[in-house]
Amino acid sequence: MNITIFIIICVLTLSILAPFIAIYAVSFIKMKKYKTHIKIHKWLFWVCIAALLVLEIQIRVAGGSGSLVEGSEYMGTTAFKVLLIAHIIGAVLTYILWGITIFLSNKKWKKRKTLPGGFSITHKRMGIIVIIGLFYIAITAFFVSLFAFFL
Q1: Cβ-Cβ contacts under 8 Å for 136 (sequence gap 6 or more)
Q2: Fewest CB within 10 A of the end CB: N or C in the chain?
Q3: How many domains does the chain have?
């Protein structure tokens, strides 16, 4: 197995696990263990960002995304292109919202240190959208990888 496929499998695995880890982090809110919730989400976010950077660097080193999927019979199809673009757009939007949620929540948490507060409803809504986005990323990443590398 070459390094590129290994990295893709690792990032895919992380993408599939991420929404479940995020939901696990949410479970600490009901127990009022807010610091644990915060730590898990920050850790998960930064691990996912690091994994994406490693993947992106490896894709560039390997000759770009086109060279990686050139063996796939689906590469030139409209369906694959649409799936790939939809995956990328969904992932970028989810990660931007996730980063904003963490940044704003951290800012509010440092001010108050108590919850719930006025930002809690907004935070909860943003969190739900992020978790839905993480599931979307996991599903689309699975199909992109399946069509690009395993079929």
Answers
A1: 90, 94
A2: N
A3: 1
> Closest Cα to residue 8, out of 75, 62, 73?
62
Query: Residue 82 sits in which domain range?
Result: 3-150
pLDDT in tens, 47-67: 999 999 998 898 888 776 666
CA distance 61 to 59: 6
Residue pair 129/19 in contact (Cβ under 8 Å)? The answer is: no
Taking 50 as the pLDDT cut, the residues of the chain under it are none
Identity of the amino acid at 9: I
- 8 Å CB contact between 11 and 52: yes
Give the containing element (helix H, strand E) for 116. none
